[in-house]
Design a protein that fits this description.
Structural class: alpha+beta
Oligomer: single chain
Number of strands: 13
Strand content: 25-35%
Largest sheet: 8 strands, mixed
Order of helices and strands: HEEEEEEEEEEEHEHEH
Helix content: 10-25%
Length: 240
């Protein structure tokens, strides 16, 4: 992947105020609800996300290059009685609140910088009979994927398109690609929600924020796996 540099990340920041959620935290309150057991292939809880599932991977020259960007297989236990659909939301809770120094030689994004949410995968209206999405079903490469009806549910617009990181609206899964000079490892939450409605009623290029607001009203159970990723070689050394 070419170094998109300062201009793209500055554009991301300008749009982030409208598309990202409150700093570094999810806006879904799951207290008192049943728990789904969620498994993401190759991702141990709080462990490193394998490069095969990343949008960008380290490179000897230019710091980064295109990754395979395959969507991982994800499985979950059956929801509570009354489950009428499921939703999947994958979000990076460590997107920088300022990209002024992103991907710039000789500069570092400090780990102490305020962080925002950045959505990588939104799939809703998953039938209650489905408790697994196979590897590669929601992405395999960098081609833009349409929002709307898909094999396993209804795709929303992920933030790669919403923020202008890539051209046009794109749905489905797009994996990690944090700034290569970020001193903080990014945490990616693969959340699965059991819902009491067949459809959330979302249409068009609905966003991660739209999804979480709708999910909050209809949750019966939830679960998640958190994976970690970094393109900073010094940070990657500490990932397991």
């Amino acid at each position: 992947m070419p170094d998109r540099g300062r201009l793209v990340w500055a554009a991301v920041l300008l749009i982030c105020g409208a598309c990202l959620s409150v700093s570094g935290s999810l806006v879904v309150d799951a207290r008192g609800l049943a728990t789904l057991s969620v498994t993401v292939t190759g991702v141990k809880p709080n462990g490193a996300i394998p490069p095969v599932y990343a949008y960008c991977v380290p490179a000897a020259k230019g710091h980064v290059t295109d990754g395979p960007n395959r969507s991982p297989a994800i499985r979950w236990t059956k929801g509570a009685a009354g489950t009428a659909s499921y939703a999947i939301v994958m979000v990076d809770t460590d997107a920088p609140s300022s990209f002024d120094t992103a991907n710039q030689e000789g500069k570092t994004i400090p780990a102490t910088l305020k962080r925002l949410n950045f959505f990588h995968w939104i799939l809703v209206d998953i039938p209650p009979s489905v408790t697994e999405i196979p590897e590669g079903a929601e992405s395999s490469g960098h081609a833009a994927k349409p929002v709307g009806p898909a094999t396993y549910g209804l795709r929303g617009a992920n933030d790669l398109g919403v923020t202008g990181f890539v051209k046009g609206t794109t749905g489905g899964y797009d994996g990690p690609c944090p700034p290569w000079n970020d001193a903080l490892a990014h945490h990616y939450h693969f959340g699965v929600y059991a819902l009491n409605v067949k459809t959330l009623g979302l249409t068009g290029a609905f966003t991660g924020g739209d999804t979480l607001r709708a999910v909050q009203k209809h949750m019966l159970a939830s679960g998640q796996v958190v994976g970690v990723y970094s393109l900073n070689p010094d940070v990657r050394k500490g990932l397991k």
